[in-house]
# Entry
Amino acid sequence: MGFLDISNVTKSYGNVEVLHQVDIKVEEGEFLVLVGPSGCGKSTLLNMIAGLEGITSGDISIKGRVMNGVHPSNRNIAMVFQSYALYPNMTVGQNMTFGLEMHGVEKSKRDVALKDVAKLLQLDQLLDRKPGQLSGGQRQRVAMGRALVRDPDVFLFDEPLSNLDAKLRVDMRTEIKKLHEKLKTTIVYVTHDQIEALTLSTRIAVMNGGYVQQLGTPKEIYDTPANLFVATFMGSPAMNVLPAKVSMVDGVPYAQIIDGEGQPVSLRFSQENMEDWDGKDILLGIRPEALTDPEGADRKSTNIATFHNAIDVTEPAGSDTFVTTTLGDADVIARMRADTDVASGQMFEFAVNMDKAVAFDPVTEQRIAP
Amino acid sequence: MSIATQGTDVNTGKIARTFIYLVLLVFALFYLLPFFVMVVNSLKPLDEITGGNMMALPDKWTIQPWLSAWSSAQIGVEPTGLKPYFVNSILMVVPAVAISTFLGALNGYVLTKWRFRGDTILFGLLLFSCFIPFQIVLIPMATILGKIGLAGTIPGLVLVHVVYGVGFTTLYYRNYYAAFPTELVRAAMMDGAGFFRIFWRIMLPVSGPITVVSVIWQFTNVWNDFLFGASFGGQSQPMTVALNNLVQSSTGVKEYNVHFAGAILAALPTLLVYIVAGRYFVRGLMAGSVKG
Amino acid sequence: MARHATDADFRTKLQEWIPKLVLSPSIALMLIFVYGFILFTVYLSFTGSRMLPRYDLVGFDNYARLWGLSAWWTAVTNLAIFASLYIFICTAIGLTLAILLDQKIRGEGMLRPIYLYPMALSFIVTGTAWKWFLDPGIGLENTMHLWGWDSFSFGWIKDRNMAIYTIVIAAVWQTSGFVMAMFLAGLRGIDNEILKAAQIDGASNWSLYRRIVIPMLRPAFLSAFVILAHLAVKSYDLVIALTGGGPGRATELPATFMYSYTFTRNQMGTGAASAVIMLMTIAAIMMPYLYAELKEKK
# Structure
């Protein structure tokens, strides 16, 4: 049994089921990120953990205690909201200790807790200000401080960074990560931003349409996505997906794709167990960073395939240059080093790191290899 | 409502601008004139009114009409002046405004932050009740007030004004609280605050602006009401009814100057409230009525 | 927030009931004093009640009688004249003043309260002021004569055919400033960039307002119409104070008709029927508006 146990939980509004059989066990100290597009059910699940929404069937328990029907304030959890939800009429200090006050903690103890957390988050100077006088980043820290003061079993974060500008978002991301590493708290974090998910989490649950599509470490999710949805949702730019046909040559599997001029190109799979798919159509997934020039290819790779194709567009982005080319009628993005010598319209030699290629069943969209 | 500093104005020439100012001033005159005439003539002796020009300032200034209107003019059959009726109005307005505003705040809080199935329909019914012609409830109301012994009493009038005012106060608070982030209520809930604690500690402290609107609205409506006062006032008639009796009385000489002084006395409380807090009122009223 | 009633803890269950309990007094008052009373009045309108409520059903007799009464026809005709003029003039003045006041006018802060203050007065005070102002013997007409304009004549308030228009004047005086404020709020809420775009597109002042600004004020027009229309149907105090329904019955409105038939002429059944018709008129105006408002908010 985990620290936070979500077992077979479903949620329905009337006859419409919006969450289906969610089953996640979170260990103490874990940083679980729920990620998915809007409407996937991630916020509903978080609200159910918080007790802000009821559970239709299944159980949620924390430290072995079933929480169904327990009032939010009695679950020993704390939540950081998207809008921070700071009480506008109270000072920073009052905001942070309001929960303790409601739980009947005496003033002297509240002050000690407040002092510790204020120091940790560098809020000492701001305790007498009202939320309206704070910058976005400061409000964010107060919201986290309010959660920390309670010393809860589980922290819930509901898209806490989405109201910040791009630079501040990156800074606060680092701060949250540092805080987690320092305090080893158990966190459930909701976001629609897949980069936040990958950078912050110890485990990720990718959700779509009310289902958990895949639950795993960031590396598992990125390298071996369970299905086409996870593959294309996680990673930016998204994974290239092109139609291909499997053919076995001397017992070795190859993926046949069509290049920009309609000519077939064969790419050898790094995986061996593809016999069942001989002669069948698949979808081949290649991450942009696995498609480069031969110079830039991963030296540790055991299997680099090369081919020539025309460049459609080049987009220098500072640290990288993105190159768009056409394979099998689809636009494909390759990620090159910034100093790669490329130009639109030019014929170019591409290198594919087939160790990183993933194959999907075109009908079920589930991963078949590796 | 945020008033943008940059308006929808257009570039206009000098002649056009003069014309605009002219029109605006003419209308200002239109709105000011009747009240100006009332004030000026309330300070004249009666013979200057009947024999003179209403626009002229008094030759002989006098506050006698005011004193008479306040304490000795004939209202109905008694020469009591408007004073006792003024007191009636105060006794009626204060509790009616306080109760209806408080109920409206609680209702608005429930209808936005503790929603339940069917709440929109209840609100719709409440809202429609603001707009009914009160003639439709006059007959049963007279019957019921008589049965429960509140006919012709101040508490009876308070009850009537609370009942037909609570729709509006609910509307105001509901619109105001709707813009108030629900996440705050959820945060307070997780912090362990219950229904009433959230109301007292989180919602009420930020409800100042809308409370001003609700109080002024209710104060103006209740103070200015005539229909209910005339129908159910009985021995406890409010100011408006007394003023009408004073003005319409057909016995004796028409003391116009006393009538004017009385009319201004009747208008004074609402005018004062309007002058002191009118800005907030209009701002809130707009937010309430334009956005529905 | 639907929860499992069976497995919710006490606190959670309590928190679910408190809001409904808090709302219930207002709902109870409303159901009894508004909707219960409406049903009661509707019922009375089908009875032969005279001085006191009676419960013998007489079918549509009261309605038939009502529409046969010339006094009722006068009241309805008066309401039609009054309401259409009142709504139209208030809207026209309100819109004009709002647009003019929105031209970066010096002294806007002074003018706005002047336009608005009549709204704070009761209709009884307004009626008293105008009754006298319009009285030919001592008011405007007399003043003009004293100033040497001897042919000036303005006796509408004593004229059976014109008296209803004096009610329009006084009502417009009281409410048009309020309508101005509604339009002004609407104007200030319009996105400036749209106007800049229109000016860059070469729109003249006239076409800017006609094609862009006024169409964007649609919600303000709608609110103004609903508020003015319901005020018009409910108008009672102003008539009582200004003309008392006279001269003769020339300025009776349905609201005064209902009151006098019910309480002074002891024709309660007929009075109730007239109140029902007033309610139906208002419902026809309000229902679509409220429905749209509430639906959009869901």
